[in-house]
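REQUEST
  id: r-88c1
  op: predict_structure
  target: Nuclease associated modular domain-containing protein
  payload:
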Amino acid sequence: MKRNCPICGKGIRYKQKSHLTDAVRKNRKCKSCAAKIYYLSLTSIEQNKRNELIRKSTKVAMSKLKKEGKKWGIYERTKEIRQKQSHAMKGKSSHRKGNPLLDEHRKRIGESNRGKVRTARTKRVLRAIRLRQLKERFGQVMPNYNSEACSIIEEYGKQHGYNFQHAENGGEFHIKELGYWVDGYDAQQNVVIEYYENWHQKQIQKDLRRQQEIEKHMACTFIRIAE
Ligand SMILES: [Zn+2]
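RESPONSE
  id: r-88c1
  status: 200
  body:
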């Protein structure tokens, strides 16, 4: 079963009919477009932080490879493979060409908001504006989710008497006023649950501020489970 990404047109495969129907209904994008939309939904300060994290982890990965005497990704291609690949690409235009998300990104770079200090409120307003613009251009915006986290949240709910709405059960709950999606939400008991993968350890302060913002806005119980 297959459908095409509504943005880039790339084919997306589905194992189950229900997944396909769900994806059509929610106008789901392919993984890479969804990731780009998520990135664009961040304020530029958040984007800079994220880029910094990626730069750092790339450095770590590269130095590890160096120690092991290996070279980084692309250089491992032999000359023959490179020639083949370059031949295969001849006459084709780059996948980057005419991609609306990349144009959007270029525009964002031009905005250059570096170094400005923003209050939580300003960030919230900016996030809401970004999400609205993205929705107008690309349809409903939804974050990528971790399927494993869904099972863990489901299991946690069973054990502790909660009924969480999550990505694979009604979709992640969207706190519209704050512009956040939470991993799980039990509306009846007003309980938010978040599953933090290991990389969250790099943004403890940010997560804490987010948690406090959510607690204050929803007057909810906030449960955090870590990988
Ligand atoms: Zn796509």
